[in-house]
Design brief:
four-stranded antiparallel sheet
């Protein structure tokens, strides 16, 4: 197997606030291999987006980081601001969650594409225009020469998301971070955007981290899944294994809340309670107050990662007999 393009080791991102220190990302470890699509799943407020912004160092200066973020063997947390600017937009890129607001409304799409090329590639003005047209063509935007002169308000939501994807992949990055890329898009356009990500992975060999709360999107696109809760990764594994045999009560609860075709229900199943305050996490398992199978040890001691098969881990005391990894 190829060596990981990204290795995250015990990453913590804590944010000082008036209420105290928010432990938004708390001891997260995982890896991503070239050409792999890894999904990060969890409820709103669990730290998914903060994890993405931590990887590219785009959080406020007050953010407190520890651990290691190894991209192609180099620790991004040890890089200077100038070094990170050279990496962002070229080697690591992002597609943000709201295409309606991510593009600058006062500049044409062509201006914004050429601006990226001006800062990240050595090209003449004519070469930048030709490359911008090719970037739009590669994400299947019709009549790219004409669309280059469009302003964002002249495009649909799906078209804007394609433009953002073109911006993020035009320089063939090694890693693409997609933060809720199908938000605010209808189901048909969502399917087209997901197909586009799969095509980009196959054509460029780009690794993709897909942040979402939509488990249907994960099953459609991802090779592996990281289940995140209260700033921590509580279960990992290959996508189909997670769906077939979830090992953590939280993962089971998430899957149970999905409506299924042909199934009759009087009401949808919900997870009782809410995510704990990240300024005051309990000493034990963060999911314990909401867990129907909680034990005494869950209240006092946070569980280590227990092996649940090849490439699978779950942080739950129910698997204590398996031994920690």
């Amino acid at each position: 197997m190829a060596e990981p393009i990204l290795e995250v080791q015990s990453l913590c991102t804590h944010l000082p606030t008036k209420r105290g220190l928010v432990r938004a990302v708390d001891g997260v470890s995982f890896s991503v291999r070239p050409g792999e699509i890894v999904g990060v799943v969890g409820e709103s407020g669990c730290g998914k987006s903060t994890l993405c912004f931590s990887l590219v160092r785009l959080l406020p200066d007050t953010a407190q980081h520890s651990g290691r973020i190894l991209f192609r063997g180099e620790d991004l947390l040890a890089k200077s601001r100038e070094e990170m600017r050279a990496i962002r937009g070229k080697d690591i890129t992002m597609v943000l969650q709201n295409p309606m607001t991510a593009l600058d409304p006062v500049y044409t799409v062509g201006n914004q594409l050429r601006e990226i090329l001006r800062f990240n590639a050595d090209m003449t003005p004519g070469e930048r225009t030709r490359r911008a047209i090719e970037m739009l063509r590669q994400v299947h935007i019709p009549s790219p020469e004409e669309r280059l002169e469009n302003y964002p308000h002249q495009m649909s939501g799906g078209m804007k998301q394609r433009v953002l994807t073109a911006m993020a992949t035009g320089l063939k990055p090694g890693l693409l971070l997609a933060d809720e890329p199908t938000t605010a898009l209808d189901v048909t356009i969502q399917e087209q955007i997901l197909g586009l990500f799969a095509e980009i992975r196959d054509r460029l060999g780009t690794a993709i981290i897909l942040v979402t709360h939509d488990l249907g999107v994960v099953r459609r696109l991802c090779d592996r899944v990281l289940i995140m809760y209260a700033g921590r990764i509580i279960e990992t594994g290959e996508t189909e294994a997670i769906f077939q045999e979830p090992q953590h009560p939280y993962t089971r609860a998430l899957l149970a809340s999905i409506p299924k075709m042909g199934e009759e229900r009087t009401r949808l199943q919900a997870i009782a309670g809410q995510i704990p305050d990240l300024t005051g996490l309990p000493p034990g398992c963060s999911f314990e107050p909401r867990c129907p199978r909680a034990m005494e040890i869950c209240r006092t001691t946070y569980p280590p990662a227990f092996a649940r098969g090849p490439g699978r881990e779950a942080r739950c005391w129910l698997h204590e007999e398996a031994g920690a990894t």
